[in-house]
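TICKET: design request
STATUS: open
ATTACHED STRUCTURE:
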């Protein structure tokens, strides 16, 4: 896509990326907002909820009581997670769920190299698979298995790959997103995009399928809200809202905080988190528009709407974001060619 830019726009893109990279490398160190060592964490909360369910408590009673006990908000109802993941954990155990999590990561690493739009060299496809695996490796940590955003990101990423790889088999990504919606409502962004493109392309059966999924999801969310309501007490905390608007800094910090990049010094970590954006822009719009729009949508949501401590929303872009690393040389070549072309 960068190769088709008029020269002034190519120069502008190059200057913006150079400025962003310079900002990443020059910005002062700033710690990510995380729980201090020994503090009660979200993962411990979800494990305690499951343990209480194992002792015979219902999910909603367990969730609201534990959130109240540890000063987590229970209002609005979306602060209480959908019950699917924790119900499964109480049935088959977190260890077995962790194995499924690893299988989803491997599926992403295998399908994305096949799904990347033409024309890409074999080395680029292999590089994309490796980058996806390494970029999503934190998702396979047993300690993070209770984090619903990880499951949502893995399923959304796999759904996007399946949609690009098997364009006629829309039921495959639909099945992935249906599973994601039972875990985290944030997967609904994929539904909006897929339905909009299906309408634009005149795919009536696919449009109907996404609309049916929307109705089922709305009904399920209503049932969830009604189930939470009786367990909420007048003195319960309310969420401060989701409108911190941290911009590019928030997006890059979320990507660093949810990957192995957090082990690096902040400056190179932020720069490496930014580079895949240039690689993704090297794709042809016609073949890669769904992946580009999906990444842009979730990236904007992470940049504009989470609270300062919601860095874990970065999992929503994983692992597909880092496939763009393999395309950075292509992006640089295209951008240089567009700048030279008068």
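STATUS: resolved
RESOLUTION: sequence designed for all positions
ATTACHED SEQUENCE:
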């Amino acid at each position: 896509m960068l190769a088709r830019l008029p020269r002034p726009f190519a120069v502008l893109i190059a200057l913006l990326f150079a400025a962003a990279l310079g900002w990443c490398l020059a910005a002062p160190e700033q710690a990510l907002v995380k729980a201090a060592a020994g503090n009660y964490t979200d993962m411990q909360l979800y494990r305690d909820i499951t343990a209480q369910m194992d002792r015979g408590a219902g999910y909603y009673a367990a969730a609201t009581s534990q959130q109240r006990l540890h000063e987590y908000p229970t209002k609005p109802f979306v602060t209480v997670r959908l019950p699917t993941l924790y119900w499964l954990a109480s049935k088959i155990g977190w260890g077995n769920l962790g194995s499924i999590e690893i299988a989803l990561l491997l599926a992403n690493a295998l399908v994305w190299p096949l799904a990347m739009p033409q024309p890409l060299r074999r080395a680029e496809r292999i590089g994309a698979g490796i980058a996806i695996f390494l970029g999503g490796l934190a998702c396979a940590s047993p300690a993070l298995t209770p984090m619903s955003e990880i499951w949502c990101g893995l399923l959304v990423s796999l759904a996007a790959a399946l949609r690009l790889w098997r364009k006629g088999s829309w039921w495959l990504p639909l099945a992935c997103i249906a599973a994601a919606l039972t875990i985290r409502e944030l997967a609904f962004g994929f539904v909006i995009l897929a339905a909009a493109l299906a309408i634009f392309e005149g795919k009536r059966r696919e449009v109907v399928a996404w609309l049916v999924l929307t109705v089922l999801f709305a009904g399920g969310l209503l049932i969830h809200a009604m189930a939470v309501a009786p367990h909420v007490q007048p003195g319960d905390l309310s969420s401060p809202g989701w409108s911190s608007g941290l911009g590019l800094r928030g997006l890059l910090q979320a990507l660093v905080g949810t990957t192995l990049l957090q082990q690096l010094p902040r400056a190179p970590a932020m720069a490496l988190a930014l580079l895949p954006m240039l690689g993704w822009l090297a794709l042809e719009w016609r073949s890669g528009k769904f992946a580009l729009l999906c990444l842009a949508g979730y990236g904007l949501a992470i940049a504009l709407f989470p609270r300062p401590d919601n860095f874990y929303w970065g999992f929503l872009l994983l692992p597909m974001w880092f496939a763009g690393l393999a395309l950075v040389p292509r992006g640089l070549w295209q951008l240089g060619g567009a700048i030279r072309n008068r």
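CLOSING REMARK: The chain has one domain: 2-24+58-340. Confidence is low (pLDDT under 50) at residues 33-37.
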